[in-house]
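Practice problem: predict the structure.
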Amino acid sequence: MAPRLFTLFVGLGLLWSVPGLSAQNQYGTLSFSPSNPTSNDFITVIFTPYAGEPDWCSLSSTVFGNEVRIIAFPVECAPGYGTKNAAAIGRLPAGSYQVIWTFTDNFSHVPVPTAQLTVAYAAVQVQSTSLIALVMLGLGIILIGLSSMRANYSLKRTAAGRLR
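Answer:
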């Protein structure tokens, strides 16, 4: 009888733990804007609540190494305070980050939404010089050349006049 009772408790324990395993992101999902950010982009984390779940008000975000924590609460944002279902985290250096959408009093370790964010290196942007700037540079070089030619001609003429 004891082995059957033990099997019953183990079976119930497994059934009890399955929802906990499948509820890794039980409140909703996270996505990013832009979806493939570079180190030049201003990044926003977007929280999409599951059906029947409340909207969240994000209050702050912090970056610790390769972890981004967004502190939020499942309440409506007060006017002028917090952002509904989104958090601006700004620009990040290229690399991989673990983003965690959480709340400060999560003492019971309720599963919260997490997502992996990869920030790519931004291509170096070289500004092209405008046509006007190139024309001005060319005119400047021509004027310097003409000025030195005139000075050179003037020196030759003065020297020729002294020789006579």
